[in-house]
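Re: the 474-residue chain
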Amino acid sequence: MAHEIRQDMRLSQQLVMSPQLQLAIKLLQLSRLELEELVIEELENNPVLEEEAGAGEGGEISVSKREEREVDWEAYLENCYERPLGRSFAEESEEYSLEATLTKKPTLSEHLMWQLHLSPFTPEETLVGEFIIGNIDEDGYLRFGEDSGDETAYLKSITQEIANAVGINEDIVESTIRKIQQFDPVGVCSRTVRECLLIQVKFLGCDDPTVEEIINHHLNHFEKKNYKAVAAALKIPIDKVLDAVKFIVGLNPRPGSAYGQSEATVIIPDIFIHKIGGDYVVLLNENGLPKLRVSSYYRTLISQNGRGSAETKAYVQEKLRAAKWLIQSIQQRQRTIYKVTLSILKFQRDFFDSGTCYLKPLILRDVAEDIGMHESTVSRVTTNKYAHTPHGIFELKYFFSAGVNRDDGTGVASKSIMEKLKNICEIEDANKPLSDQKIADLLRKSGINIARRTVTKYRETMGILSASGRKKLF
């Protein structure tokens, strides 16, 4: 087949996103913290941008504060030994705050290492101990591979693997494991749940043979709260089994959990929704966000066609354009968040008046049509954005939920149903907890017609145990 070169014309349409549109979309999906970081970065990189501030008064105040804080070193040296240790917080100051004195909570690994280096271990034991502590998980367990069901073989395989890794005798490895298991928290470095519980039983000095018998041979019945089967297997009264169960329940099967918890994250809301009188007011949270403006110096430089090469002028023009785009995009972002919040407030008015149980079904399309925007825009706006409401702080995504129809034809959100289910489980008789079918019957009486399997799905989503798991015998 002969090859030939020819020209032809084709007409097509395609969406081309301008840099300004790309920036606006990027800012929409940023969280508040990410936006602050981006603004600070732009202030550092773009000389045309500057932060609005009271230049005259700010300068005078800073100078006066500096003068007030001039230190009289002679007087300080004379009286330094008369002052109490530590810092006095009697006078409030923005520069020094109590939060700045908070220290980081030690991790489980750091806590164990500290005890290891304070203990009279030999150099070989210290080497093994450091390797073991480095392989303890956040629950406090020393796990290697998978437990095949033979606990004795599993424990021996862990010892052998550590011995091969550090090149030290298995007896020294096993001895080191036993010593670390006596560290705080008690039961740490256990290889199985059974070993962890038995270590704690021995540490607490419990001499009840029923406790050890249940832990050694009847943990499966214990987990299912099948105490009658335990009593039948041990041929003892049920009351004696319940006494042993009370003791076992007080043990900690996850000794490292106290150190594995992540620190609380502080959420700064983007929107405040306040109820004033009988109406609600929506306020944007502008605190912490630098107020930007274009530098008057560079604006004048451009308008007066001042000196400089063509390359310099092009650079300033580019930075000026980028600064204006950023300022406009931030303002557009704030306006969009405000519009979406007002629309959510209109659709979910019952929630703001009465609480979570009155949350209605709402989808992105409803809000998008209400404010005249695309669903993808609403999705970006509601991601990682938080609103402070009379009932707490909620992510804007929280107000969107599928639902079911009541018997009267009105809709109810799935989150509202889950809240009702949670309330039912909280007020039920702990000695006779309700089954999923009975909970479904109660919800049906209130007009919410859902199946038993739906109740099960919602219950498991919230981490609520089944009726047998919620039952309390003592």
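The chain has three domains: 108-260, 271-401, 404-470.
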